[in-house]
């Protein structure tokens, strides 16, 4: 935990370095939320570093990978980031602290046309856990306290499927895996008996679905879906938003939004890389789209 805190602090310090460029808009700063190997995140977003300067009229684009979700959230709240892709709960945290800090402008559309995804609880196939009842007295892992699918939705939705019993009263212990990828790896190691991650819910579980953390791990060759079973799937969750700093130059905002809307057609490989799987494209969103999640976060966590 102490090491994680140091990493988070270091990330914020690095983010602050870019703040001097905010006024002249020469450096467009992208925040990358934690939870996946840093080298993979940097590689997946390199296409934006290469393409965005010309597309939106800036001198350069910089990537700031945070150690956890909160590193990116604090960068957005502090105005040291210009764009990030968040989960709905991460956006809700920002909204509840300063609703004018960022604007949600776009979200992804699944291959079946849905604008939502699912929290997926998984366990090792040989664990004997196949249904929620098997979790009683076991250890349940969550991805990150600011994750929508990895924490907020499970703790608010699971009680309904547990006969009204709170998660903490049903399982013996809970903990955090340090992001979605690490969470699944810890389930495979046996650190947790089961854990919550996310997927599109479209396609087959055996493939990791069409997008989401499981699919990304399969594509990277670090997960064999034959080693896991699906224990629980949540109700549909609104896909997380692409957000931009509200005070960002209006012309930059317009050009960036146009670039992103066209990206699935102009560079499908880049679009797939930054989104981590197969999607149909983007659609516009407003804060109202996330109001149910904002309300859920306020009721459960407070901010």
UniProtKB/TrEMBL annotation:
<protein>
    <submittedName>
        <fullName>Phosphonate ABC transporter substrate-binding protein</fullName>
    </submittedName>
</protein>
<comment type="similarity">
    <text>Belongs to the phosphate/phosphite/phosphonate binding protein family.</text>
</comment>
<feature type="signal peptide">
    <location>
        <begin position="1"/>
        <end position="22"/>
    </location>
</feature>
<dbReference type="Pfam" id="PF12974">
    <property type="entry name" value="Phosphonate-bd"/>
</dbReference>
<dbReference type="InterPro" id="IPR005770">
    <property type="entry name" value="PhnD"/>
</dbReference>
<dbReference type="GO" id="GO:0043190">
    <property type="term" value="C:ATP-binding cassette (ABC) transporter complex"/>
</dbReference>
<dbReference type="GO" id="GO:0055085">
    <property type="term" value="P:transmembrane transport"/>
</dbReference>
<keyword id="KW-0732">Signal</keyword>
<dbReference type="InterPro" id="IPR017797">
    <property type="entry name" value="Phosphnate-bd"/>
</dbReference>
<dbReference type="GO" id="GO:0015716">
    <property type="term" value="P:organic phosphonate transport"/>
</dbReference>
């Amino acid at each position: 935990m102490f090491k994680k805190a140091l990493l988070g602090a270091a990330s914020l310090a690095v983010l602050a370095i870019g703040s001097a460029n905010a006024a002249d808009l020469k450096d467009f700063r992208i925040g990358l939320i934690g939870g996946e190997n840093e080298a993979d995140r940097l590689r997946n977003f390199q296409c934006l570093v290469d393409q965005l300067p010309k597309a939106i009229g800036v001198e350069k684009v910089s990537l700031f990978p945070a150690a956890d979700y909160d590193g990116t959230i604090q960068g957005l709240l502090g105005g040291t980031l210009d764009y990030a892709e968040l989960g709905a709960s991460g956006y809700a945290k920002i909204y509840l602290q300063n609703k004018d800090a960022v604007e949600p402008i776009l979200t992804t559309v699944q291959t079946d046309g849905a604008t939502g995804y699912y929290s997926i609880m998984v366990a090792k196939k040989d664990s004997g856990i196949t249904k929620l009842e098997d979790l009683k007295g076991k250890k349940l892992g969550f991805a990150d306290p600011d994750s929508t699918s990895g924490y907020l939705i499970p703790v608010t939705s699971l009680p309904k499927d547990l006969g009204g019993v709170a998660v903490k009263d049903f399982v013996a212990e809970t903990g955090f895996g340090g992001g979605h990828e690490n969470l699944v790896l810890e389930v495979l190691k046996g650190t947790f008996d089961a854990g919550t991650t996310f997927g599109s819910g479209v396609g087959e579980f055996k493939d990791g679905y069409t997008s989401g953390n499981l699919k990304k791990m399969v594509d990277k060759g670090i997960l064999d879906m034959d080693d896991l079973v699906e224990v629980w799937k949540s109700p549909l969750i609104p896909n997380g938003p692409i957000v931009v700093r509200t005070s960002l130059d209006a012309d930059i905002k317009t050009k960036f939004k146009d670039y992103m809307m066209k990206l699935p057609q102009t560079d499908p490989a880049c679009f797939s890389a930054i989104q981590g799987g197969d999607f149909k494209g983007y659609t516009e969103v407003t804060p109202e789209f996330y109001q149910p999640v904002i309300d859920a976060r306020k009721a459960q966590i407070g901010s």
